[in-house]
Design goal:
Elements: E1 2-6, H1 10-19, E2 24-29, E3 43-45, H2 46-54, E4 64-67, E5 70-74, E6 80-84, E7 88-91, H3 93-100, E8 105-108, H4 114-120, E9 123-126, E10 143-152, E11 162-166, E12 172-178, E13 183-190, H5 195-206, E14 209-219, E15 230-231, E16 234-236, H6 252-264, H7 269-279, H8 281-294, H9 304-316, H10 318-321, H11 327-335
Parallel strand pairs: 1-2, 1-9, 2-8, 5-11, 9-16
Antiparallel strand pairs: 3-7, 4-7, 5-6, 10-13, 10-14, 11-12, 12-13, 15-16
Amino acid sequence: MKIAVVGIGVAGGYLVSRLKKDHEVVGYERMTEENHDSICAWGTSANEMRELCAKSGINFDDFIIHHGKDMHIDMNNNERFDIKLKGLVTFDKIGLIKKMSEGVKIHYGVSPKLADLEKEYDMIVDCTGFYRSYLPKIEKDFFLPTYQYKIQYDDKVPIDDFFVKPFAKMTGYFWYFPLNDNMAHIGAGDYKKNHVEETDKFFKKYGGKITKTVGRPIRLATPNMCEPFYHGKVVGVGESIGTVYPLLGEGIIPSMICADIFVRNINNLPKYREEVLEYFAIYGKVLNFVRAKMHGKFSAIRSIADLISIFRYMKKNEQRFGMEIHMRDLMKVAKA
């Protein structure tokens, strides 16, 4: 088929790398090539990424910047603890996307009209993330505003590893992800819109030079809330259909897994829908937990079944999350 992939983030980049051998693929990205970036802090699990990238003939280790050992957690109730990491890294996300896109014509700095795409292509894949530019609007969307700086420090980074500060009632969190000896991403997402204030507070404390600023909403609505997944010639893949893990706001690996499901079912879209809903079913329970906390309606007793389901899912997938998962840590987050 002749396929247009619109939105060359990690989902779109990975997708063109998977499709280019068997189809005529063209990419479109609204950002210019020079300004191509995203709100992402560039953190992911190397374990899962190695396997995913290998499907495109790419060695993920070539793009790793920082190997994490511990994630420092600073709870809003002044409780501090560390989570032992098992493969969590930061990586050159833009470099990886460019590698994935090799051999494919990518039109940067354009947002083509749907009517024009429909005339030229057999299929249009909407990888535009939050914007979901080519699919019908979601009836009950749910998202957080986010904001991020890339900081260059004069000497060395102020914190040697990952640092996260969840906000009260789990309305969001502040993140600090080291990139190398003197660079880091700092940012935050917050339902109550204190994300810029919290980011600036950290910046004022530790200083450095801001080399890039990005900000946009991130969709936490899960796939069961984001139908339709396809409409006419358009099919959604990645965050456009809700593949962000709500507890962490992490969408890199889930979006790539969604792309794999799409590639497997490219000629059977009802089957694609079925597999996406099945694979991401747990995300709905996670979102219910997060929203209950945000709105002050969480009860550990009433939600114990969902908490156990979430714990079992994350424990079973420690390699995928890149960290050790313990019920005591989940309960600290749940009670804060």
